[in-house]
Amino acid sequence: MNWDALGALAELLGAIAVFLTLAYLTVQVRQNSKALELQNKFSAAQIMQARTDTVMGFISVLLSSEENVKAQMVASSVSDVSAMNEQDPSIRVRANSILSGSRSLYEKVFFQYKEGFLTDDFYTGLEPNIAVYAESWLKLGTAMSSEFKAEVVRIHEKTKAA
After folding, report:
1. Cα angle vertex 13, ends 7, 19, to 5°?
2. Which of 129, 131, 67, 128 has the alpha carbon at shortest distance from 97?
3. Which domain holds residue 85?
4. Is residue 45 part of a domain?
5. Residue 20 falls within a domain, yes or no?
6. What's the number of domains the chain is made of?
7. How many other C-beta atoms lie within 10 A of the C-beta of residue 160?
8. What is the C-alpha to C-alpha distance for residues 1 and 46, in angstroms, rounded to an integer?
9. DSSP one-letter code for 141
């Protein structure tokens, strides 16, 4: 065997090694992609569970007393600031707390949706819940990010048009 044949054999073995390495890396990338996809699904499930726990806690507080139920009714139907000011101070404080808590809950959901952690279908299903508080949040000037406020206005307008 001469040097040329030995060089050609070495090149062939090198090409086979490169091919096998690429095949191995392809398998590894696919496995890694599947693992990341499963991790993303698990994270989304954790977010959904945390959201459910928060909502259940919120509802539990709302239903824990007759005063809280009255405050919920006030919070979801404020026609103007003076209507809120006419309420019993205890109901007014509870209603403001309900508005603040609900705003926080739904603003977090909105940003989770924007980041892709929630499906379009799920978020669209929550829009009626946001609409319950939208007018009160807007009339009372409840603090919220400008992005969420634009979303609240959109949902409120959509609800009024329906």
Report:
1. 135
2. 67
3. 65-161
4. no
5. no
6. 1
7. 10
8. 65
9. T
pLDDT at residue 1 in the model: 67
Task: Quote the tokens at residue 24.
Answer: 């191995």
Degrees, nearest 5: CA angle 154-121-101: 60
Q: Global pTM?
A: 0.68
pLDDT digits (tens, 9 = 90+) for 142-156: 999 999 999 999 999
Give the chain's length: 162
Burial label, 41 (beta-carbon count in 10 A; 0-12, 13-18, 19+): exposed
Cβ atoms 65, 29 nearer than 8 A: no
Contacts of 131 (CB under 8 A, 6+ apart): 155, 156, 158, 159
The rounded Cα 76 to chain-centroid distance in angstroms is 22
Query: Residue 55, Cβ neighbours under 10 Å: how many?
Result: 15
Q: Side chain identity at 1, as an amino acid letter?
A: M
In the predicted model, is pLDDT for residue 87 greater than 90? no
